[in-house]
Design a protein that fits this description.
Elements (H helix, E strand, L loop, with lengths): L1 H9 L2 H9 L33 H11 L11 H12 L4 H11 L3 H10 L11 E6 L2 H5 L2 H12 L12 E6 L11 E3 L2 E4 L3 H12 L7 E2 L31
Parallel strand pairs: 1-2, 4-5
Antiparallel strand pairs: 1-3, 3-4
Helix pairs in contact: 3-4, 4-5, 5-6, 8-9
């Protein structure tokens, strides 16, 4: 009886499998990263290339490390990587190895940090590193047109560097200046409230080596309302305002 029961149940399996096989399964497209953090030796990025901080930056590095107890020197990895990148222009393997030696950790600990945070450029970038925010608020305010303008003006696509090595263009997530969208970061400076016309002006000024002042390109002060102030339009009251004179 047991054998017959098993045979009977088994005879049902092909039909069940057949019905399951007919089900349509929807899958989303695999997201592809524009960076693959796998090191490949090049002539200027290998373990035999030497990197040393300049005397000025070494003094700064010691100041940074002095902020951490001796047993927690590894806490200085991020600011030291930033310092090394500012000196070299990007975060190379020699930079990471030098910092690992300074904070006395295995090099892998520094590699993990440098490849996790997008602020560290693992490849050389141009003199002007253009980071265009294309997240929803900036996109709603026209970042798509700004992207097309930059690509047209410089003759490059996202992720590319101009032949003269001056400009590198990348897309980034929220730049944290949504009220001034669309926003383009040029190295450490934000150019905000951009239009295709003002974007071209910013790029042309960078080409001449005389960058326009950073900030909103519409004339407004920081992030004040575009339509003008609606509050705090009069002089603030002085001490004692609204207090009885006998108090």
């Amino acid at each position: 009886m047991i054998g017959r029961s098993l045979v009977s149940k088994a005879s049902l399996l092909p039909a069940a499998r057949s019905s399951i096989a007919k089900r349509s399964i929807a899958t989303s497209r695999v997201a592809l990263s524009d960076k693959l953090f796998v090191h490949r030796d090049t002539t200027d990025n290998n373990a035999n290339v030497k990197f040393e901080f300049t005397a000025e930056n070494m003094e700064r590095a010691n100041e940074i490390m002095a902020k951490y107890p001796p047993q927690y020197k590894k806490g200085a990895i991020m600011p030291l990587l930033d310092l090394g990148q500012r000196q070299l222009g990007w975060t190379s393997l020699p930079v990471m190895n030098a910092i690992a030696k300074m904070v006395e950790v295995p090099p892998m600990r520094v590699y993990e940090v440098a490849t996790f945070y997008t602020m560290y450029n693992r490849e050389p970038v141009g003199k002007y590193f253009l980071q265009l925010c294309t997240t929803t608020p900036c996109q709603l305010c026209g970042s798509t047109e700004i992207l097309k303008t930059i690509e047209s003006n410089l003759g490059i696509k996202v992720g590319e560097t101009t032949k003269d090595g001056k400009f590198t263009l990348v897309e980034v997530e929220c730049a944290g200046a949504c009220v001034n969208a669309p926003v383009l970061a040029v190295n450490d400076d934000y150019y905000e409230d951009l239009t295709p016309e003002t974007t071209n002006k910013v790029l042309e000024s960078l080409k001449t080596g005389a960058p326009l002042p950073a900030g909103p390109q519409t004339g407004r002060l920081t992030c004040e309302p575009k339509g003008g102030l609606t509050t705090l339009t009069t002089e603030p009251t002085g001490p004692g305002f609204g207090i009885r004179s006998d108090l």
